[in-house]
Design brief:
About 7% of the residues have low confidence. This protein has a domain of 102 residues: 60s Ribosomal Protein L30, Chain: A (2-Layer Sandwich). It has a six-stranded mixed sheet with strand order 1-2-3-6-4-5, covered by helices on one side. It is globular and about 45 Å long. The N and C termini lie far apart (74 Å). The protein contains three helices and six strands, in the order H-E-E-E-H-E-H-E-E. By secondary structure, the chain is α+β, with helices and mostly antiparallel strands. Helices cover 38% and strands 23% of the residues. Helix 3 links the parallel strand 4 and strand 5. It comes from Terriglobus roseus. Keywords: Signal. This is Enamine deaminase RidA, house cleaning of reactive enamine intermediates, YjgF/YER057c/UK114 family. InterPro entries: RutC-like_sf (IPR035959), TAT_signal (IPR006311), YjgF/YER057c/UK114 (IPR006175), YoaB-like (IPR035709).
Amino acid sequence: MPNLANKTTRRNLLKNAAGAAAAVTGAAALAPSMAAAAAPKEQKQGWPKPKDGEKRLFSSAVLHNGTLYLAGVGAHFQGTIQEHTKHVLDELEKQLIECGSSMDKVLKVNVYLNDLKDYQAMNETYMGRFTGIPPVRTTVAPAGGVPGNSLVEMDCIAYV
């Protein structure tokens, strides 16, 4: 004679397994919509803040979802490549701090030299301005030079 208790137990196990599978499948189907609901909305902030009705050509800085983009900074005075490089790095550091970041959080720097012969002298001043892991960097000398009679211009990307 078959064991009735074993059949009942197996039947209950199969029912429970089927119910669990349906619950998991249903939860998986809901997961994408739940993740979308929990994901933070994109946020974009610009600096400096425009005055009412003011139209700007570009922002000096834009923060987007924790990543900070700083526009190019030049040195618009008579001086050496070392003086210009120091000035530009000092100005970038001020902007980074104003926007809630720092030189330690810089990920990428673009350097634009008015003349490629200034590469070594610029590097001597640039060296050591970023502690820890230095940012990745691209250095170029644009064919038309750097705007505004600056010997060097730099922009950067950092996190906050």
